[in-house]
Write a structure and sequence with these properties.
By secondary structure, the chain is an alpha+beta fold. It is 22% helix and 40% strand. A five-stranded antiparallel sheet has the order 12-11-10-9-13. Helix 4 runs antiparallel to helix 6 and helix 5 crosses helix 6. The longest helix is centred in the middle third of the chain and has 14 residues. The termini are close together.
């Protein structure tokens, strides 16, 4: 599957801004299942960017605008090819996997994805409530699948119920939220059960006549580390494995590690708009 993605972030300031510093995390990854064919960033007012790779392997572009401006437009255009086949439902938890999963080396290596963060923290009664509904995590392959299905059934997708700063322990009692909330809750439960899991930011291709949700802006889902296999993507918002419709940008412990656009400026208030378009170029 080959896609073109256009992503535009527009910021309109109440008064002239005379300085702004920004970071952009919108460059899709290249890995064994995804290939970045082309990528460019268009910034208005014009500005040069400096790129580096962060601790989590994400591409980060930074830029600084020193002169006065009334608005800021950041547009990225990407072309990506994806080739991935479903397999997690076919996996069996073997003795070899069990030995790896319970080893000190495995847990030490993936420790950043086993610890709570402010975004993924859940109270113990939240964990107990969810575990009582789906069972204990005796199988670290089947448990994430069961958890994904449970959260999909239990949470209403509602863009008005939460904000970008809403934490998992706040959104779970609401039983409502967006992809970010589904993902943070799922991460909180998995980590409590000792299953390494990370946050994924990316895009979702919905296409025509699809029941998938989450293409209005960047999408979010979970990747679980399967012993001896690697990272496997699960999308609790849509109750599907993250396959060729899921275009990966970045990964981290939670949303804070992969926030698409961050910045500071000197001036008054502002409002923003986000527009994302994902076009299928070739199957």
């Amino acid at each position: 599957m080959k896609y073109q993605i256009e992503h535009t972030n527009s910021f309109y300031y109440d008064n002239d801004v005379d300085q702004s510093m920004n970071t952009v995390r919108l460059k899709p990854r290249t890995d064994e299942c995804q290939r970045l064919i082309s990528y460019r960033t268009e910034i208005t007012p014009a500005s040069l960017t400096k790129e580096h790779v962060d601790l989590w392997g994400n591409h980060v572009e930074s830029f600084f605008i020193a002169h006065k401006h009334k608005d800021l437009i950041v547009k990225t255009i990407s072309t990506v090819s994806i080739q991935k086949s479903p397999f997690i439902h076919l996996l069996k938890y073997t003795d070899e996997m069990r030995e790896i999963f319970h080893s000190d080396l495995f847990h030490e290596h993936y420790l950043p994805y086993l610890n709570d963060t402010p975004y993924t923290f859940l109270y113990k009664d939240h964990i107990t409530e969810i575990t009582n509904a789906i069972g204990e995590a005796n199988d670290p392959i089947q448990f994430p699948i069961d958890l994904m299905e449970f959260l999909h059934r239990s949470i209403l997708y509602d863009g008005t119920s939460t904000q970008v700063g809403t934490k998992a322990h706040e959104s779970w009692p609401l039983r409502a939220g967006v992809c970010q909330d589904y993902t943070h809750i799922m991460l909180g439960v998995l980590r409590d059960k000792g299953i390494p899991a990370r946050y994924v930011s990316g895009y979702l291709y919905v296409g025509e006549n699809s029941a998938l949700i989450g293409d209005a802006a960047t999408h979010a889902w979970v990747e679980v580390m399967i012993p001896g296999i690697g990272w496997v993507g699960l999308d609790p918002t849509n109750n599907v494995e993250a396959l060729e419709n899921h275009i990966r940008i970045g990964t981290g412990r939670d949303y804070a590690d992969v926030s698409p656009l961050q910045g500071v400026y000197r001036g008054g208030g502002q409002h923003s708009e986000v527009k994302v378009s994902v076009t299928l170029l070739d199957q």
